[in-house]
Design brief:
Blueprint (H helix, E strand, L loop, with lengths): L7 E2 L2 E5 L13 H15 L5 E6 L5 H14 L3 E7 L2 H10 L4 E5 L8 E8 L2 E2 L2 H11 L12 E3 L3 H16 L10 E4 L7 H7 L28 H14 L3 E5 L6 E4 L5 E2 L1 H12 L7 E4 L5 H10 L3 E4 L4 H13 L6 E3 L5 E3 L5 E2 L1 H17 L16 E9 L4 H17 L4 E3 L7 E5 L6 E5 L7 E8 L4 H13 L5 E2 L1 H7 L1
Parallel strand pairs: 3-4, 3-5, 4-8, 9-10, 13-14, 13-15
Antiparallel strand pairs: 1-2, 2-6, 5-6, 6-7, 10-11, 11-12, 15-16, 16-17, 18-22, 18-23, 19-20, 20-21, 21-22
């Protein structure tokens, strides 16, 4: 019996799809995909099913799609083959096509040789416990004799693009609201190229400055990832060279986005959260914005004081922030937005779906409005105090029971900071330990947390002054040296 839980990565299935397993990440074989698909059908527990299947542009997409569809057909499922699709579009098949569920084949921003499966059901993504159940089902996959299902090919992306155009038209009150605007899209040869030609151009935008719109599963120009420096540099250059008003960049499957202003300056991470919060809190006075745990002090002050909202720094992981957003709204707490600094953003009025294309639509609507007033997007977060330095260092744990060892390290780091003259623990954090550092020991903060799945403790540093992250890192190194099963080589290298 194969251990299918090794394919679990948060709420997604992930594996190597081209080549061989490296011994750490498992190989996603046809048989494994077939059994996982069977496990999903068993999880749905419904006699008659209609399931949509789509994929991003990875070179392994065809093989995996065939394995999924063949399994569904053998189980008597009616299949809607959507072909090349964005992940949010596959979610929308549940809304628009009346599907019971959807399966997207994607590994998001990961390299070309990886792939995976993402599941949607009941107009929502699944959570980690549900994926565990699916993978446990897959270990005992059974394909009983039954009437074969049928496959219907549906190109859903044009309808999805139409939905986005309708959102922008409604938000601006104009049929061609983007006339006179020049917007450069960098799709990184992922799925997001449709946004330039099927969303922006039909509304009047000049998209001639766009780059890398054609899908290519080898990603020959740069990784489609708004957190990648090369990717952000590419879209910034595209904006400057084409003299565009705005640049938009998506990850491979378009569930994340970021942008750059007309000067080519990045609007990503804390700046992107500030912009999205300013948009989402309009008409939602005093509303809560759920974020991940590594947001800056400046962003916290901006949302709480400038926007008169409430920020809730929660946990890393897009599903964590979205689930918290849903929980708050179910408790009648006004929470219009959940957003990670990575670019995952879920608006309440868009089915709580992390959709980079929808985030881009809301940004474009606001750009049109501000331009009429002679203002810029940057004016919305001009008072955001930004850090002088940021740094992330990952400490590897060298024991099998890494979770216990990591939890012990974090708890003792908390005690150390509590008794320190120069560090103090930030109360009421939901993940790991966040520590404020005084002007002599970092002049900012650091956050240490245990990775959900990997034997790693990521540590994020932020400082208001140049040299502050190094000062904090040196103090952490002195503490971490007491843990022989902790690989501090990355920290030592930074502190040289």
């Amino acid at each position: 019996m194969q251990d299918m839980l090794k394919f679990k990565s948060g709420t997604d299935v992930r594996g190597i799809a081209v080549g061989e397993s490296d011994g750490i990440i498992p190989f996603l074989s046809d048989e494994a995909v077939r059994n996982i698909t069977c496990g999903f059908v068993k999880f749905l527990n419904k006699k008659t099913l209609k399931i949509a299947v789509g994929h991003d542009c990875r070179v392994s997409a065809g093989r995996l799609k065939n394995a999924v569809i063949n399994a569904l057909v053998d189980l008597g499922v009616s299949v809607i083959d959507c072909g090349l699709s964005s992940t949010p579009a596959m979610f929308m098949t549940n809304v628009e096509l009346g599907c019971d569920a959807a399966i997207q084949l994607t590994a998001s921003h990961h390299p070309w040789d990886k792939n995976g499966l993402k599941f949607f059901v009941n107009k929502s993504g699944i959570d980690g416990k549900q994926l565990t159940e699916i993978l446990k089902n897959a270990e005992n996959a059974q394909f009983p004799e039954c009437e074969k299902g049928r496959v219907e090919a549906v190109d859903f992306m044009p309808r999805y693009a139409e939905i986005l155009r309708e959102i922008i038209i409604k938000g601006t009150g104009e049929k061609t609201p983007l006339k006179g605007l020049k917007i450069a899209v960098d799709a990184g040869n992922g799925v997001g190229g449709f946004y330039a030609n099927q969303v922006l151009a039909p509304l009047g935008a000049d998209v001639s400055g766009s780059r890398f719109l054609n899908p290519d599963g080898m990603f020959p120009n740069h990784i489609p990832n708004p957190e990648n420096k090369q990717a952000m540099q590419a879209v910034s250059e595209a904006v400057v060279e084409s003299k565009s008003d705005l640049g938009l960049i998506f990850d491979t499957d378009v569930d994340r986005a970021a942008c750059v202003d007309s000067s080519g300056k990045e609007i990503a991470r804390n700046r992107l959260v500030a912009l999205a919060a300013a948009i989402a809190l309009e008409g939602n006075d005093g509303g809560t914005v759920v974020t991940d745990s590594i947001v800056s002090d400046g962003l916290i002050n901006f949302i709480n004081n400038t926007l008169d909202g409430i920020i809730l720094p929660f946990k890393r992981g897009y599903k964590n922030v979205i689930d918290k957003q849903i929980e708050l709204n179910n408790l009648r707490i006004n929470c219009p937005l959940a957003i990670e600094t990575s670019g995952h953003a879920a608006f309440r009025d868009n089915y709580y779906l992390d959709d980079g294309a929808y985030l881009a639509a809301r940004i474009v609507i606001k750009l049109v409005e501000l331009k009429k007033q002679g203002k810029t997007l940057e004016s919305l977060f001009a008072s955001l105090e930004e850090a002088a330095e940021e740094k992330e260092i990952r400490l590897k744990i060298k024991v099998d029971d890494f979770r216990s060892y990591g939890e012990k390290f974090i708890e003792e780091l908390r005690e150390f900071a509590d008794n320190s003259e120069y560090w103090s623990v930030v109360p009421n954090t939901y993940e790991g330990v966040r520590i404020n550092a005084d002007s002599e020991s970092g002049n900012g903060w650091l956050l240490a947390r245990l990775s959900v799945h990997d034997p790693v403790i990521p540590v994020n540093f932020e400082s208001r002054t140049v040299g502050g992250t190094l000062a904090a890192a040196k103090l952490l190194l002195e503490f971490a040296k007491n843990y022989p099963e902790l690989d501090c080589s990355a920290l030592e290298e930074y502190c040289k």
